[in-house]
Amino acid sequence: MHHLYSKAMCWGALDGALWLEERDLLELDRDKVRSNLDTIRAVVLEHGWNEDRQAYTGALDCEHLDASVLLLPKLGIIEADHPRMVATYERIDAELAKGSFVWRYDPSIDDNSSPEGAFMACSFWAAEYLALAGRRDEAAGRMRKLLGAGNDLRIFSEEYDPEAQIMLGNLPQGLSHAALVHAALALGEKNGDEV
After folding, report:
1. pTM
2. Which region is the signal sequence (predicted)?
3. Domain span at 125
């Protein structure tokens, strides 16, 4: 199984390598890297899209949703306001979210018997996606709700149970904080604010 997030991160790594090469910080075959970038983008956009689900899914030629695909616009693979990306967000919001809190994927597809909470990184990725798509008010509203899930020091855990209003998993969780920072930066940039 080829996961879409893995393909997207390979694209991001090559795009970063090209950025370094353009600044004479790395030597590489520019044409070959660009060709690989085009190939990866084409595979992600063609085989990551599920026509029946009307969404980009967690793996190539798959039907299961995965909230990590909300990072595709941030990586530059597709525009946030592209109709397919908008449909993907709407599908993820409908099936993997409770309010502002987003699960990475449907926990029923796992054999894990322990309950999973909403994944805080994915929840902040959804806010970042909304900011990148120009949906600033929705992004800001989601951020306000998510910020309430931190403790009194605004430290965030890996997961959160929005019904019981308790933190789950690792605390603190660096990925949750990194996702929060990126969402805040995207929200500030789209608003023209300095963050």
Report:
1. 0.90
2. none
3. 99-195
